[in-house]
Amino acid sequence: MTTTSPSPEIGKSLVAAGLRTNYHDLGQGFPVLLIHGSGPGVSAWANWRLVMPVLAKERRVIAPDMAGFGFTDRPEGAVYSMDNWVKQAVGLMDALGLPQVDLVGNSFGGALSLALAIRHPQRVRRLVLMGAAGVPFELTPALDAVWGYTPSFENMRKVMDWFAYDRNLVSDELARLRYEASIQPGFQESYASMFPAPRQRWVEALASKEEDIRALPHEALIIHGREDQVIPVSNSIRLSQWISRSQLHVFGRCGHWTQIEHASRFAQLVGNFLAEADSA
After folding, report:
1. Is 26 left (phi over 0), alpha (psi -120 to 50) or beta?
2. Phi, psi of 183 (to 5 degrees)
3. I want to staple 33 with a disulfide (CB 3.0 to 4.6 A). Which of 3, 96, 101, 129 is the partner?
4. Which residues, in sequence order, are CB contacts of 160 under 8 Å at separation 6+?
């Protein structure tokens, strides 16, 4: 008799702001909340699988699937908006009894992390923004292709080529896995409804106001891949200029997948940054 092991993308489950949310919870210590990006077929596990166990050696790591992504419920008529994503993230913290977290956001998750820190500054200790949206910029051809994805193995292969500087990271096997993830029931329907063309408006919808970003009191670590074709590195340069207590780290020979292309360096950089607050 053979048994099929459950997907590693499925973790624990609880109701956050009325939405049954799939999330991963590992390690002990001060909590860090990891918010994934918005690629097709994405999940928290797919985004953070290489760095979660490393960060969990020193702290409690919590990585949810945000509404419309991964294995979190997709109720009929769901509205995907920054207001609702922030409510879900804060609802998750409330359900877990966490008054404050460190916050790490990737791409779309960076925009969400900015919005959460602006609206609930006391709930965030330190802020890490990686390849973040969240400021106005001209829609890139790569982001237009990512948000405009329609399911096929060939399209997933093309999308993943946009993400990585080193194309050797994008194997047919990985593209097949992400393609299969993108065609699970309900996945493409919610994804297609989230960022329909024309897509420049969704860049603006994810952006926070400059004056609100400048008013952030948090220590912030801003990370970007120099060769990122999806979100321009100029976004992170601008964020580093707007957030007074910030530092900027740019990885060379790196695309939009800093946490995958430079996983060990990324985990060490973030771990050291958060450890400063542990010892403060």
Report:
1. beta
2. -110, 15
3. 101
4. 170, 174, 175, 178
Omega prior to 198 cis, within 30 of 0: yes
Q: What does 168-212 look like in DSSP terms, one character per residue?
A: GG--HHHHHHHHHHHTSTTHHHHHHHHSPSSTHHHHHHHPPPHHH
Distances (CA, A) of 182 to 4, 11, 69, 75, 260: 20, 18, 10, 17, 19
Put simply, whether the predicted model's pTM sits higher than 0.90 gets the answer yes
* Tokens 């294995």 -> residue: 71
Of 87, 98, 95, 89, residue with least CA distance to 31: 98
- Inter-residue contact 252 to 224 (CB < 8 Å): no
Burial status of residue 88 (CB atoms within 10 A of its CB: 0-12, 13-18, 19 or more): buried
The closest of 190, 260, 7, 219 to 102, measured between CA atoms, is 219
What pLDDT, in 10s, does the model give residues 90-144?
999 999 999 999 999 999 999 999 999 999 999 999 999 999 999 999 999 999 9
Rounded Cα distance, 65 and 42, in Å: 9
Rounded to whole angstroms, what are the CA distances from 185 to 4, 84, 130, 146, 155? Answer: 19, 22, 30, 19, 18
Q: What six digits make up the tokens of 49?
A: 């699988």
Q: Which residues are catalytic?
A: 107, 228, 256
User: Where in 131-171 does DSSP place strands (E)?
Assistant: none
Instruction: Give the torsion sign (CA, 63, 143, 257, 212).
Output: negative
Over the range 46-55, which residues count as b (16 or more CB within 10 Å of their CB) and which as e? bbbbbbbebb
- Average pLDDT of the segment spanning 169-189: 93
